[in-house]
Amino acid sequence: MKNIELLSTKIRKNLLKITYSSKSAHIASSLSIVDIIATIYSKFMKKNKKNIFVLSKGHACLAHYCLLYEFGYIKKKTLNTFGKNGTILMSHSSHKVPGVNLSTGSLGHGLPVSTGIALSKKITSNSGKVFVLLSDGELNEGSNWESLLFSAHNNLNNLVIIIDHNKIQSLDFVNKTMKLDPLKKKFSSFGCKVLEINGHNHKEIFNSLKNTSNKPLVVIANTIKGKGISFMENKVLWHYKSPNFDELILGLKELKK
Amino acid sequence: MRNLFIDTLVKEARLNKKIVLIVGDLGFNVVEPFKKEFPKRFFNAGVSEQSMIGIASGLSMNGFHVFVYSIANFPTFRCAEQIRNDIDYHNLPVTIVSVGSGLGYGNLGYTHHGLQDYALMRSFPNTIICSPSDNYELKNSLKYLFKKPQPSYLRLDKSLDLNLKNSKNNLIPGDWNSRDKHKNSKKLVLSTGSTYNDCKNFLKKKKNSLYNWYSIPMWGMKIKSNQFKKLSAFNEIITFENHIQDGGFGSWINEILSVNISRKKFFVQNKFINSNVIGKVGSEKFLNKLYGPK
After folding, report:
1. Which residue from A19, A197, B7, B61 could staple onto A27, CB 3.0 to 4.6 Å apart?
2. By three-state DSSP, how is residue A173 classified?
3. How far apart are CA A57 and CA A105, in angstroms?
4. What is the mean pLDDT of residues A130-135?
5. B21, B51, B60, B79, best to mutate vs chain A, most A CBs in 10 Å
6. Domain holding A173: CATH number?
């Protein structure tokens, strides 16, 4: 787990630097998923090439791109072009980037497509799991609930749905926008196995994701939006804002601790 | 056409294990032969078109050629962004099949009238539209799609069962299928979809007897480039479609002609379903008589 700790810090540092240089948005949404994706790639993707990862909350793609750089899919030179004119690294997930399966950015697409990938594995008796990471605000989209009905009905126990529950969506806090609670009950009533974890604890993330049952697995990962940089944590503002130079230096200092 | 579609799909699925059929809780008395013979490759996604298209995309990413079956506007407008982002942008082998083109479900009202689907589907750069006007064109469209699975939209008439004389075997997208030829005439009728009777009624008038008549069963944005050369052999062009004018087949032809306007000028007329039909109810025959292409 120590390696994942180090990996997560590396990703957060690059995330901060590139958001600063590209003046892009969504740094807080990206920071909240770092520990989750670092664990998925270190523990599940690296060892089993049949596992698939889909980032449904495509606006957090920079975290994914920084991780793909660490795993050798993207060169540093390419990573530094993020969000700039003519780049392949647009500010939402793009399937034109090596290691990315699905272009996302419009919410509510990742889970239906992942459901189809999981179904195709069932038809062909192909092993491996499909890990799909959604935001909590994304759960407003009805297409997710349509697909949950389908995946539970078809016993897609190779489908692992992770909710980045950072409790802030675009304009406001989730519970001030449209209440999701009781979230755990909602998922279990749809026929899924549901676990609730600390989405920044690598051991908890690992233990939850390796769970097996005869149902689709939903892991509600309680996270902090902006995790790792104190002045960005739990603030709606950092869904949009990019750091200025002073904030960059301050943020990097915090990440060095 | 519906039954011919399923029969052809079943025959192909016997040979090709990559064929999968997903239905949106529709297709009673149509899809059963496929379900019976291939229960592991048949799925009912329920009444959930957005999810259905996403699931079809995921299946096709792993090599399946997925056919999605529904009626009217449900597998197109209801899930337009899923078609745009998931199927078309990723260039995936999914064929969306919609039954009840034009006013086929006349008595069921505007919600079930397929009047604007060309406008939506032809705005996707990788998608080809298959709008066969008879059984032969349907079989040919499927034959092509089986051979070259790609983003595609198969638009079927609800009850048409026509076997016309056809000019070509192995039609490919952009091909013109000849219905009537007049060697020395520069006049042209171009049709697509279920418009046989409308074209016939037009052509049986004495003053219209010298028109060449072709149908184009497979078309779309990526098949525009090879059309002007064929069109330029004529001076007068009349298009027929069972869709409103805006964004339809006639508009497609008009766009091809307009970008080449400096090369040649044509007399062009579009025949289409009048949008005054919106909100009107009646049988297909009744509505078509009042609002159909003429």
Report:
1. A19
2. strand
3. 6
4. 98
5. B51
6. 3.40.50.970
